[in-house]
């Protein structure tokens, strides 16, 4: 997964199982526009709805175990929905291949349990719009892990520049807010740690999906990681009791958005070159900032000029990092 909480790592290679499928609405220009915008709109709405979910379930800021339980239920539901939609799409039950258990366990720990432990705790201690702008740094961390740890990618000067520009945007948005705002380790710091986990998970997903269907990995990873979080939350005394009628509808929506957005993104990556799909990921923080400001009434703490500049820096950094190598060579020729 890369730029959004839950989006799969882009791949230039042909997906496992054969060439990109041809035909169908998603293979058209209108199809890629509709699906990519919808996926990023869903992902962008997540920070606001998680915060609304805390209120609907009456989860206090210091109630860590209930937040872990909340996250566990969401991703268990998302995993089952992703597997169900994938099974309907493939017209067969999506079960792991023999030998895939270890890969699923690693992804469950890294991309679900650890990533969303930090994200859910951090989100309760920072503004939703800040989380929406910090989360795309998972793209930069994915590049660093791929280059420095797994040796899958070359860390070119242009990619280093993209990372530096993107992180400048993160620093800027972390300092934005009323009277300059502030930075908390268990707020903006935890959102950044969540992005580190997501970036590393993206690289592993890229490697593992050469041997297993990415929807199988994601779906079963969500189910396994979600079950771990449920167990930890319950063992630690976490409880969920609806404090308003919107509580369970919000939970269902959060599970639905992860399953649908991931499925749409995966199908687009099967049908189109990565460079054509990944550009739409820039919409994620736009939707996140706008929806958080509207749904959470964060206008009073939103430093609009600084936020717009931070957004532009993050967009530019992600664009530089994701620009295909062959395009750069073509321009240089």
Task: Characterise this structure.
The chain has one domain. It has 13 helices and no strands. The longest helix is centred in the N-terminal third of the chain and has 28 residues. It is globular, with a radius of gyration of 19 Å. The N terminus and C terminus are likely disordered.
Keywords:
single chain, 333 residues, mainly alpha, 13 helices, disordered N terminus
Largest sheet: none
**Total domain modules:** 1
H/E topology pattern: HHHHHHHHHHHHH
**What is the strand content?**
under 5%
Please identify the structural class as seen in this structure: mainly alpha
Shape: globular
User: How far apart lie the N and C ends?
Assistant: 33 Å
What is the CA-based Rg, rounded?
A: 19 Å
Discrete helix count? 13
Tell me how many strands there are.
Answer: 0
Helix content: 55-70%
Low-confidence stretches: 1-20, 327-333
Q: Taking all residues together, what is the mean pLDDT?
A: 79
TL;DR?
This protein is an all-alpha fold and 333 residues long. The chain is built from 13 helices and no strands.
Task: Outline the secondary-structure elements.
Layout: H1 29-56, H2 64-90, H3 101-123, H4 128-134, H5 138-149, H6 157-174, H7 185-208, H8 214-235, H9 247-271, H10 274-278, H11 283-295, H12 304-322, H13 325-332
